[in-house]
Write the structure tokens for this entry.
Amino acid sequence: MGEPGRVFILFGVLLVVVGVSLVLVGRVPVKRAPGVGRLPGDILLKGKNFTFYFPLTTCLAVSALLTLILWLLLRFRQ
């Protein structure tokens, strides 16, 4: 098996681990940090029979934080 095959297998195993942990964590009552998921700029539309919530600002903040962490890890790894 070539290198791409190993990468796909590793990615699949990682997805399974993340999926199982999300299911298990979803069953545990955890108190969220105040303000996380309800930042200014998050989109919340409430209608008569529906509610739509998209955490746009939260996604951008998490993305920036993960980018910084990965950049630091890769920079100091060399």
